Amino acid sequence: MSDAPGDAGGVDVPIVACVLAGGTGTRLYPASRSDRPKQFLALDGDRSLLAETVDRVAFADETVVLTGDRHAAAVREHAPDASVFVEPEPKDTGPALAYAARRVREQDGDCVMLCLPADHHVDGDFEAVATHAARVAVDRDGLVTMGVEPTRPATGYGYVEPGEFQQTADGSEYAPVAAFREKPDRETAERLLDLECLWNAGVFAWTPDAFLRECEGTPLSSLADDSLDVEPAFDAAPAVSVDYAVLERTSDAYVVPATFAWDDLGSWDALARILDTDADGNAVLASDDCSAGDAILVDTTDSVVATDDKHVSVVDCEDLVVAAFDDRVLVAPRDSSQRVREVVADLRERDAF
């Protein structure tokens, strides 16, 4: 908490951090299940991803966590100092963020929202970048995203094509967004790197008024209509991502460079990028009750092994994911980590997720 409302990083209005914690993390199955979403898992430390995210925004004047009714009690356990907004039903990031904007404006009035998922890995000075993004959002009265310099032609992330960068009085940079790019195939990702595009980190700053203004004439227009109460307005909105509903349609978006190391902990292959690896490039994740020694890897390289209280042995393999949690085991090539969601889709049809 900053010393007084509106003094966080020199931003003239209060910063309200809005942490999105309503998803289930299907690509981290079987560690992540319907009754144990990934935001409550400890993947890159001793504390849950949600708790670490709330700690990351401690500089904000207020923090709210947006989640579903099913997980509200767990959110309060993992983030006891944050307020909790319970969205009426899961409808993707578009309605969730518009609902949060309505609630924050009603509760806090003139402020700037810092919106971020509960499942990212960040290493570096997040506060400096976030407060810069908040200042740009207030000064330009627009929608601001953080752009991460790519380290590889990733196909699982969206990209931002920046326009010409400009400097603020303190030397910080921002640029108008020339285009938002969908998750590309490998060839397109390599071309986007040549164009000096940035990864879209999915961390945003905007005032509630600016965001709701940009929702007008989009699939989220019901939530931009002040004559509608927020609950029926939410009911009228379709399930849609904020990228498709708003960001790809607006002409008033900006990007600030993220100077911190970043990763979206959305799939098993991400663990090999954030955990310490052995001499053969293997990453092992185990619970407090299961030390790394309970996973035996023989002639195995560049693999990810994760388990709760089970012993796992892997022999003569490479580029593999082995995850054993509860009564479930997942085995897949690392390059196919994104396809775990297909398993979850099948399990949901059987009501077994």
- What's the main sheet like? 5 strands, mixed, barrel
Number of strands: 18
> How many helical elements?
11
Strand numbers in spatial order across the main sheet: 6-10-7-9-11
H/E element string? EHEHEHEEHEEEEHEHHHHEEHEEEEEEH
Task: Enter the CATH topology name of the largest domain.
Answer: Spore Coat Polysaccharide Biosynthesis Protein SpsA, Chain A
Summarize the amount of helix as a percent range. 25-40%
CATH superfamily of the largest domain: Spore Coat Polysaccharide Biosynthesis Protein SpsA, Chain A
The fraction of residues assigned to DSSP E strands is: 25-35%
The CATH architecture classification of the largest domain is Alpha-Beta Complex
Radius of gyration: 20 Å
The pLDDT mean sits at 91
Tell me the count of domains. Answer: 2
Under CATH at level 1, the class of the largest domain stands as Alpha Beta
Distance between the termini: 38 Å
Low-confidence stretches: 1-7, 288-293
- What structural category do the secondary elements indicate? alpha/beta
* Coarse morphology: globular
